[in-house]
Design a protein that fits this description.
LepA_CTD; binds guanosine-5'-triphosphate; eight-stranded antiparallel sheet; 33 strands; translation elongation factor activity; about 600 residues; Elongation Factor Tu (Ef-tu), domain 3; cell membrane; about 35% strand
Length: about 600
């Protein structure tokens, strides 16, 4: 097949603007999927993706399109996720493309991730054309949105297409634009092989499946392929494309996108961003790779039953096979016993991993409040990185603490600017930009400490803007701050897993709110439970959970054993997701109380 007839592209958009729906329509129109096999959002094949209605992993699919010029084109469509935690998936997908369709909801307009993703595409030198989706909605205002696209993103709207991905209106025009606007790939199949790994996952039957874009040369069965960064060599078993089912092909040539299987057992060997070449006939230099993704949010996971520790380790190792960005290491907590300290790309990533561990592996977990990684310069000049508050050195050994800060972009309606600025100020933000995109839409940029974002920022933003604010952020660097560790003591003992790092000015308020919240969350026990918050040795807040007066069994006068058993069963259920710390039973919610403490509502 001639390269002239190939188009490699991604669909990018703000979350919920309809890119998965548009991808579905494209598959339908190109008959890749029989009508009877068509289910909504066919590319989102993980159960969890379907349930949450979001795309977690990027997917690639190859379809044929007979254009109006009479020629048959091959489209390699790469669907990308839209949530901020997964923006690294977007950027790696874009490296495999020549073009990007920017989907914008015509009833909503440009949002924070529309901007972030459009800039990513521009940075990757892609051809872009906008698709204004949802024009079937009465609130759709395509002209206004076109103006925003030109004015805010600076994107030419000459090739913009008005679409309803729901009804199919305009989709034919999108297909023609793909042919017209996006350039065919370059490269020569006779050159030494250079192919980019842009995704990989572990399949229990076939081993590692690599998703690759071939830039030069080709990949074919029996070829000895070499990964440039690790130097490892494997013999290729099979190559092919997704139609969307895995379909074997003879080879993958320059310009093409597809999968490679080579009996690889270890996903660590297939680093995303690495270049595949041919052993003995190497390309001169590796392709420009990707930014390595570093976890920025950390939390500890402990099994509620200590005997499930090994099961938890096994489950996490399995999950990691398909998620290179998820990291973990063993941790011992005085209060909670054996568990793991885990690193994530963001809060959503953390929630998804926890949910998968609980659902797919049937584990009951206690997770601790999310934290970020601090850079600490000790008084002896040593520099350490601490992502676990309980590992923070004593204050007298600390010279300075730096915390990660992000550049945050918020797009909202003018009427909510006031409360949003207030929220950002409360969260120790520094304003960088405020611009009216139109009379009623405003773009706000702030530098904010990441630590203030992981704690319920997004929820608060949604609530102060009644849902009319979109949000995106990228890590900007480190900033020195006056931070302290707040310890929580239960009956006089520090519960290490409850410690949090807070700004000094907020410590007192947080301590009050936290102890109050703990009191609500820790159930009454047979004895009085004192809850204190302290900085170092200084106790700054205290509450008490009163003792229970009656034993639950006291209700069972006489010897009705079945009734007694029922009550005990009931009690046991209530015990689920609790962890005994000394004599006191602490429920999961208490470990996340910091997320529920709402200082902005004071
Ligand atoms: N009325 C209308 N609704 C649409 C249209 N296109 C998509 N939707 C709806 O908008 C919602 C979001 O669509 P998705 O395709 O899941 O959006 P997405 O951008 O892929 O979202 P993520 O995969 O979560 O990033 C769904 O409820 C769709 O049914 C359209 O043209 N008209």
């Amino acid at each position: 097949m001639s390269k002239e007839l190939i188009r490699n592209f991604s669909i990018i958009a703000h979350i919920d603007h309809g890119k998965s729906t548009l991808a579905d329509r494209i598959l339908e129109k190109t008959s890749a999927v029989e009508k009877r096999d068509m289910k909504e959002q066919i590319l989102d094949d993980m159960d969890l993706e379907r349930e949450r209605g979001i795309t977690i992993k990027a997917h690639a699919v190859t379809v044929k399109y007979k254009a109006k010029d009479g020629k048959e084109y091959t489209f390699n469509l790469i669907d990308t996720p839209g949530h901020v935690d997964f923006s690294y998936e977007v950027s790696r997908s874009l490296k495999a493309c020549e073009g990007a369709i920017l989907v914008v909801d015509a009833s909503q307009g440009v949002e924070a991730q529309t901007l972030a993703n459009a800039y990513l595409a521009v940075d990757n030198d892609l051809e872009i054309f906008p698709v204004l989706n949802k024009i079937d909605l009465p609130a759709a205002d395509p002209d206004k949105v076109l103006e925003q696209i030109e004015h805010v993103i600076g994107l030419d709207t000459e090739h913009a297409v008005l679409v309803s991905a729901k009804t199919g209106v305009g989709v034919d025009e999108v297909l023609e634009k793909i042919v017209e606007v996006f350039p065919p790939p370059k490269g020569d199949e006779n050159n030494p092989t250079a192919a980019l790994i842009f995704d990989s996952w572990y399949d229990s039957y076939r081993g590692v499946v690599i998703l690759t874009r071939v830039f030069e040369g080709k990949i074919y069965p029996k070829m000895k392929m070499k990964f440039i960064s690790t130097g490892k060599v494997y013999e290729v078993d099979e190559v092919g494309i997704f139609t969307p089912k895995m379909t074997k092909t003879k080879e993958l040539k320059a310009g093409e996108v597809g999968y490679v299987i080579a009996g690889i057992k270890n996903i660590q060997d297939t680093k995303i961003g690495d270049t595949i070449t041919e052993d003995g006939k190497e390309c001169a230099e590796p392709l420009p790779g990707f930014q390595e993704m570093k976890p920025v949010v950390f939390s500890s996971f402990f099994p509620t039953e200590n005997t499930h520790y090994e099961d938890l380790r096994d489950a996490m190792e399995k999950l990691k096979l398909n998620d290179a960005a998820f990291v973990f290491e063993p941790e011992t907590s005085d209060a909670l016993g054996f568990g793991f300290r885990c690193g994530f790309l963001g809060l959503l990533h953390m929630e998804i991993i926890q949910e998968r561990l609980e659902r797919e592996y049937n584990l009951d977990l206690i997770s601790t409040a999310p934290s970020v990684e601090y850079k600490i310069t000790k008084t002896n000049g040593e520099v350490i990185f601490v992502s676990n508050p309980s590992k923070m050195p004593e204050p007298q050994y600390i010279q300075k603490i730096e915390e990660p800060v992000v550049n945050a972009t918020i797009v909202t309606k003018a009427e909510f600017v006031g409360p949003i600025l207030q929220l950002c100020t409360d969260r120790r933000g520094i304003q960088k930009r405020l611009e009216y995109l139109s009379q009623e839409r405003v773009l706000i940029e702030y530098e904010l400490p990441l630590n203030e974002i992981v704690i319920d920022f997004y929820d608060r933003l949604k609530s102060v803007s009644r849902g009319y604010a979109s949000f995106d952020y990228s890590i900007a660097g480190m900033r020195e701050s006056n931070l302290v560790k707040l310890d929580i003591l239960v009956n006089g003992e520090i519960v290490d897993a409850l410690s949090v790092i807070v700004h000094k000015d907020k410590a007192y308020y947080r301590a009050q709110a936290l102890t109050r919240k703990m009191k609500e969350l820790i159930p009454r026990q047979m004895f009085e439970v004192a809850i204190q918050a302290a900085i170092g040795r200084r106790v700054i807040a205290r509450t008490t959970v009163k003792a229970l007066r009656k034993n639950v069994l006291a209700k069972c006068y006489g010897g009705d054993i079945t009734r007694k058993r029922k009550l005990l069963e009931k009690q046991k259920e209530g015990k689920k997701r609790m962890k005994a710390v000394g004599k006191v039973k602490i429920p999961q919610e208490a470990f996340l109380a910091i997320l529920k403490v709402n200082e902005d509502q004071k």
